[in-house]
# Entry
Amino acid sequence: MMMFGYLLASGITTGALYALVALGITVVYKATRSVNFAHGDLFMIGGFIAYTFHVMWGLPYVVALLLAVAAGFAIGAVVERVAFRPLRDQGLVSLLLAAIGLSFILKGAARAVWGGKGDFIPFPPIATPSPISIGGILVVPQQLVVLAGAIAVMAIFAGFFKLTKLGRMMQATADNAKAAKLVGIPVNRVYVYTMAIGTAIAGSAAVLMAPITLLYPDIGFVLFIKSFAAAVLGGLTSIPGAVAGGFLIGLIETMSGGYISTQVQDVSSYIVIMLVLVFMPQGLFGGRALRRV
# Structure
């Protein structure tokens, strides 16, 4: 029972982070109908930027988080304008190749700027590492910080998406870009904000995840696969689905590792993607079947 409680707590914490990254993937997909395969590497850059602010420059953790989110927003806007907009009308293959090229550029930049400190960089936790007991379940305080932070970010984004003018324009563009353009919505500007917000969400996830893992240039690909599995499971067009899928993938991963094998844990995300695409391509909360990835 104690093992189940520990795995449950770990799965929920990990799932919250997957949900955040999957949220960014879904936001971009809803607006552009294409998946940014460099999203995980944008997450990685956000983590290293937070490391620079918090560890190297000594700024408080919360300040580093806000600055990393702001930096992610700016980087996302530049990436959309420079890397993706010129190719937006050139087809899916061009966007895919641009994302792959961007992925290698970001990895190379991380190794060039932070590589001298080693491939695996520790990020100090902001809470005591000693576990505490909640209802008989041992929980690391840092996990509670991560969970609370992830829920806060998701709540802020949900409010933004539903209550702000820009959020409503993003929804209209996601539903029908041509119709949105006809009624006067600046679609290209919405694309910039969409990519910027998606990258900012990834940056917040990076700051939250960094204290419970190690930073390294290739972490983005691993996290992208797991978060993409979460987005596919929930339905790539559904924001609630991305959140639900993130928590489910986190629980599947930790439970399979605890009760079956760590080898199964490592491939569980791939298994989920294959099963969902074969048997339920629209996902748990998706609408129409997916046609572009």
